[in-house]
From TrEMBL:
Family (UniProt): Belongs to the casein kinase 2 subunit beta family.
Function summary: Participates in Wnt signaling. Plays a complex role in regulating the basal catalytic activity of the alpha subunit.
Record bears the keyword Repeat: no
Name by which UniProt lists this protein: Casein kinase II subunit beta' isoform X1
GO CC annotations on file: cytoplasm; protein kinase CK2 complex
Source domain of life: Eukaryota
Residue runs in coiled coils: none
InterPro entries assigned to the protein according to its UniProt record, in alphabetical order: Casein_kin_II_reg-sub_N, Casein_kinase_II_beta-like, Casein_kinase_II_reg-sub
Lineage: Eukaryota, Metazoa, Ecdysozoa, Arthropoda, Hexapoda
PANTHER family: CASEIN KINASE II SUBUNIT BETA (PTHR11740)
Any one Pfam family match given in the protein's UniProt record, by short name: CK_II_beta
GO MF annotation: an example: kinase activity
Keywords linked to the UniProt accession: Kinase, Transferase
Keyword Hydrolase among record annotations: no
């Protein structure tokens, strides 16, 4: 952390390049131990990492792990907390604001006409899959356009977040598109069998 000591860690973390998909989790949410159930088994240096996130003074220097290790633990813990927070009403509102501003990017599919997308995980288990972008118009997922987002763990957003958002705010869900690309040649539709290889029938009159 390179900013001044007056900058809260959560604010600093979310402003780092590559972390634009995150919203700022309320400290009150993190301070409620009920919201952190079972996370201690997924994060090494859990106690120290939590103190970093909440800007609390740590214990004796001998108990503090190396800075790089502690920072990695804090980032992982925050990501897992974030995945839970964005399923709450407060978290949904913060992410919805980003969605309306196309803060997560737009769908690369031409027929979706630059529809805003939402981050989604393909699994809820950290360390397995990186984040993808879900388009509510074509109901498909894509890789993030910017390389700086390609290393974000998908578990930090979860598999159900976009669906929860649209259940709470159905008015935000765009109408599904039925448009599909139709391949043509000289103006004519190409038949689906046109690409199949055709074996010439054996001439029955040929001698063996």
């Amino acid at each position: 952390m390179s900013d001044s000591d007056e900058t809260a860690w959560i604010h600093w973390f979310c402003r780092q390049r590559g972390n634009e998909f995150f919203c700022e989790v309320d400290e009150e949410y993190i301070q409620d131990k009920f919201n952190l159930n079972f996370l201690d088994s997924n994060v090494t240096n859990y106690r120290c990492a939590l103190e970093v996130i909440l800007d609390l003074s740590s214990g004796s220097a001998s108990d503090i792990p190396p800075e790089s290790e502690l920072e990695a633990s804090a980032e992982k813990l925050y990501g897992l907390i974030h995945a839970r927070f964005i399923l709450t009403n407060r978290g949904i509102e913060l992410m919805l604001e980003k969605f309306y501003k196309s803060g997560f990017g737009t769908c690369p599919r031409a027929f979706c006409q630059r529809q805003a997308v939402l981050p989604i995980g393909l699994t809820d288990n950290p360390g397995e899959e990186m984040v993808r972008l879900y388009c509510p118009k074509c109901n498909d997922v894509y890789y993030p356009k910017a390389a700086r987002h390609s290393n974000l763990d998908g578990a930090f957003f979860g598999t159900g977040f976009p669906h929860m958002l649209f259940m709470v705010h159905p008015e935000a869900r765009p109408k599904r598109t039925n448009k599909k690309f139709t391949p043509r040649l000289y103006g004519f539709k190409i038949h689906q069998n046109a690409y199949k290889s055709v074996d010439s029938p054996k001439d029955q009159n040929d001698s063996p």
